[in-house]
Design a protein that fits this description.
homodimer, mainly alpha, two-stranded antiparallel ribbon, 5 strands, 11% strand, DNA-binding, Tscrpt_reg_MarR-type_CS (chains A, B), HTH_MarR-typ (chains A, B), DNA-binding (chains A, B), DNA binding (chains A, B)
DNA sequence: AAAAATATGTCAACAATGCTGACATATTTT
DNA sequence: AAAATATGTCAGCATTGTTGACATATTTTT
């Protein structure tokens, strides 16, 4: 590994050598993940702006479409945010007619969440440019490679329970 | 593709069928990316909390370590944020002794950025748990697979220039 | 039936990190 | 000398996260 001796610039020691992968760190993955994710969410961001919504709304619309009938508690557990934080965006989505809340048939304290037609269309519209991006990234990759990518994404996540 | 007929719940039509990959969308990648990224940044978040810093500080410390001597303009271009937004976190990092600013030797209007010893150590400490996570995700993967992941991360990014 | 627990909602305040607009200073280029 | 550039700073605002406290409806437990 490199020496990386600190240099003195104006009487204070600083490092003028780049921090590289020599330290055993996959900086290309760390940075690739940052840039990729940033660009990945910029697509739906542009669409959401027109409706006056943000990323938080996107997540709610997405998961409610993925699992219609999920409860508020389910959603909080998925998003890992507080109910007060969710309440703001959820209220706006309900008021705007993208999501409906229905009292649970067994437990009537629950509020089961469903997308309206507009809600489903919004979810699809938001997913579309993201899918385009994924398709482009997958272009020219073997089925094996794509599997590796999906395995990677799962492997990067926290293990359930704990 | 599925019928996905809207149901009526309390006189308003809603969808009670999950939105699945039938629509030609890789939801496993979309969601995998979301969960993976969230968990990925939670590791350094925990470390930063002790110093009273946030994610924005992390990014600055990271890139200044990766490219010591970069100017403020370089950093703004990399992060794609406004100078006012950068100013807040950069000032705190300079005041706390993690980063030093040196007037450019050719163009003295520039402020070249360098990490101090503490700044380099912080960058390494923040990268460490992320590297652990990457290593775990890569565990059991072939060199071919890992290459695919890196290609994917690049493919997901916006093309330069434009 | 009464008490406790649960699911959800709401009010209020605050923090981090983006943004825009305006203006100041030092330095370099024209 | 004037214009352009690199940076800094002040002020205000938006989004989205947080805590804490308390209210309501409903279900479960005692």
């Amino acid at each position: 590994m490199g020496r990386q001796t600190p240099e003195r610039k104006n009487t204070i020691e600083v490092y003028d050598q780049p921090l590289t992968g020599e330290a055993g760190i996959d900086f290309d993955v760390i940075e690739g993940f940052f840039f990729a994710y940033r660009d990945f969410i910029s697509d739906p961001d542009a669409i959401l702006e027109k409706s006056g919504f943000g990323r938080a709304h996107h997540r709610v619309v997405h998961f409610v479409n993925r699992e219609p009938g999920m409860t508020v508690a389910d959603l909080l557990d998925t998003l890992k945010i507080t109910k007060q934080s969710l309440a703001r965006v959820l209220k706006q989505l309900v008021d705007s007619g993208y999501i409906r809340q229905v009292a649970g048939p067994e437990d009537r304290r629950q509020r089961k969440l469903y997308p309206t037609r507009a809600g489903r269309e919004l979810a699809l519209a938001l997913a579309e440019p993201q899918q385009q991006r994924i398709a482009r990234a997958f272009d020219g990759m073997t089925a094996e490679d794509r599997k590796a990518v999906k395995r990677f994404l799962i492997g990067m996540q926290n293990t359930r329970d704990e």
